[in-house]
Design a protein that fits this description.
With about 300 residues, this protein is an alpha/beta fold. The chain has a single domain, classed as Aldolase class I (TIM Barrel), CATH 3.20.20.70. Helices cover about 45% and strands about 10% of the residues. Helix 1 packs across helix 2, helix 2 packs parallel to helix 3 and helix 11 packs across helix 12. Belongs to the DapA family.
Length: about 300
């Protein structure tokens, strides 16, 4: 079993579709190849950006298998699990384990506002059903369920719950987690617009969105920060921020897929009920992207620092 370190940049990759709605595996893998060349450390498949709510278990496993066969020896391949029933999550994770997935990103129970006790039992039952390492996704802003410090205090006893995707939008939560648990949980920022700030506060990694279109710039920011070259990272990050803000939108999938088109490593096809951007909103997003491309910074040799 591959040892997942939960360090570095983990793109939350988009799911590529053909115009008829079928999976587009060649285009999906083209994007993955660009990510790997830029120096990413792993990918998260079938997350919110991967249009999790519209793809089947079979499809997300097909995507994972394609990545495992293509670059699985080079990067961590993490499958997102967002289910409403414990047994459905366990079944999906068992199938993921059978094809060789390296780890799991696990959301609280979906489609129902559970109690803290129910969330904990869900996480613990699933973790005990598998040997795969697990990263908990803590996003109370979008999913209305917070995994609190007290809850993590109970989860720390579960050996294969190793990390958290920190999306509370509260930068102080990085320090709060470090103060309570030291290095027991790896912390990966899950909000593009707070990434450099959370890395400076000690976050171990970045589950990124706009990396799907701008992989080199994303990895450069991460590696420069970790190398202590803050001024260089900040210059890139300040250029990047107007683009990164496209991640904190209800249309983040459409925004980022349009960005992938602009940078030549994706398509805009989405699954209904989503629709591609149009009208004034499309023009607004295009203007942000085009300005960014026109002023794209020269990157240092970040892969060798």
């Amino acid at each position: 079993m591959r040892q997942v370190e939960w360090n570095g940049v983990y793109p939350a990759v988009t799911t590529k579709f053909k115009a008829n709605g079928e999976l587009d595996i060649p285009t999906f893998l083209k994007n993955i190849e660009f990510q790997v060349k830029a120096g990413i450390d792993g990918v998260v498949i079938g997350g919110s950006l991967g249009e999790s709510s519209t793809i089947t278990h079979d499809e997300r496993l097909e995507l994972a298998k394609a990545v495992l066969e293509s670059v699985g020896a080079k990067i961590d391949v993490i499958l997102n699990v967002a289910e409403g029933a414990t047994h459905n999550a366990i079944e999906l994770i068992q199938r993921a384990s059978e094809i060789g997935v390296h780890g799991i990103m696990l959301l609280p129970p979906m489609m129902y506002k559970p109690t803290d006790e129910e969330v904990l039992e869900y996480f613990i039952s699933i973790a005990q059903s598998t040997q795969l390492p697990i990263m908990i996704y803590n996003n109370p802003v979008d999913y209305k369920i917070e995994v609190t410090i007290e809850m993590f205090g109970q989860l720390k006893e579960i050996e294969n719950i190793n990390a958290v995707k920190e999306s509370t939008r509260d930068i102080s939560n990085v320090t709060r987690m470090k103060n309570h648990f030291g290095d027991r949980f790896k912390i990966l920022c899950g909000v593009d617009t707070l990434a450099m700030e959370e890395l400076l506060m000690g976050a171990d990694g970045w589950v990124a969105g706009l990396v799907d279109a701008f992989p080199a710039e994303t990895v450069a920011v991460y590696r420069l920060v970790k190398a202590g070259r803050i001024d260089e990272a900040l210059k890139i990050y300040r250029w990047f921020l107007p683009i990164l803000e496209l991640d904190i939108s209800p249309q983040l999938v459409q925004n980022i897929k349009l960005a992938e088109v602009i940078t030549g490593i994706g398509t805009e096809h989405v699954r209904a009920p989503r629709q591609a951007l149009k009208g004034d909103e499309r023009l607004r997003v295009l203007a942000i992207l085009e300005k960014g491309l026109a002023t794209r910074p020269q990157l240092p040799d970040y892969l060798n620092i």
